[in-house]
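Now for one specimen:
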Amino acid sequence: MKNIVLIGMPGSGKSTVGVLLAKALGLQFCDTDLLIQQKTGEKLQETIDTKGLSYFLTIEEKILSNLDCNGFVIATGGSAVLSSKAMEHLKRSSKVVFLDVPLEEIKQRINNITTRGIAMEKDDNIDTLFKKRLPLYRKYADITLRTEKLTLEDTVEEIIKVIYI
């Protein structure tokens, strides 16, 4: 069985939806941000602050490129799409679902941008991040799901519908 990979901006609900989706389908769940934390032994923001963005993105790419599993729901970090190598690897064994949330809603959901572990340049903000990443989310998505008017449960149901029907 193919994996289901969730991509989207920080705050789009990838981890929350991922857990619920995996439970609904009887699949295992994997959060790649947690894999990065296990590998580095520190929180995402600590890694970015102490070792730099480039190091963080390299670790993320290695972890994503080496994922070898079937029947998982995988919640990626928002920066996963910055690595074409990682995304091409994931697409070979997965259906990729972009949780498309409008910028204004993302801004309402994220209030800890400097401590959340978001992979971004020092001069970036949510607006610039959104502008840079949106084309990449669209490029790699097999399915795009607008979620701003959906409950978590509705989002899970919609993903199941578009993947299995």
